[in-house]
Amino acid sequence: MDSFELNKIIGAVLGTLLFVMGVGFLAEAIYHPIENRGPGYALPEPEVAEGGAPVEEEPAVPLSVLLASASAERGAAAVRKCQSCHNFGEGEANKQGPLLYDVVGAVQAHVEDFAYSDILMQHHNEGLVWSYENLDAFLTNPKGYAPGTKMSFAGVRSPEERADILAYLQTLSANPVPFPAPEAVPAEGEDAAGSDDTIPEELLTPAEGGSEETVVTAPEAAAETATETRDASPVVGTPVQETTPAAPESGGAAAPEPAAGQ
Domain range spanning residue 84? Predict the structure, then answer.
């Protein structure tokens, strides 16, 4: 194949590509879509599936209640994760962290020969002590309780495990600090029961002008009252003896005496 034939083939290919491109440009110019003109159909928005009802968080159990059922034996097993940085026996040396013997009730940063963080030294100067509440807050989130602390421990998330650790720390003292007294938790529905027993005052106080007892009027009494209040008209031709009615003894109306000749 000579060069002339090759040039014709290449020219045909390029011409075909140019023709296709030209047709595409021409079609796009003729059939260019017109947007935002005329009525259209609004597609419905996708419905967001509603989740279940929000789960109510369980009320936090007071620390005093957790300490009442805490176990020092479980706490001794739980502090094994802390033994790489702390000693717990009386008279033992400090490690990366200070000695934790007799820590409950002590002033924060109480070990003299240990280099505490600045935040704990500030707590020491403020007179803060390691109460059960402060120890529980520190064990929950050390960096949250003491920002800038050198302690890299993430914390103990379980309230029950923290209570067990505090129960174990209580035993590390010659004079253990007693646990706080458990708070009294009101029984469920106690307030509602108290409100149901209250009787409205208007039901206990009789209405004005009334009485506490309901008086039932007999038919005879009603008839006598009607006779007493109605004006008596004597029958023409019948002699009527005028009499003075006697005063009733019991408050009832006196019966009229019979007319003469009847």
Answer: 63-171
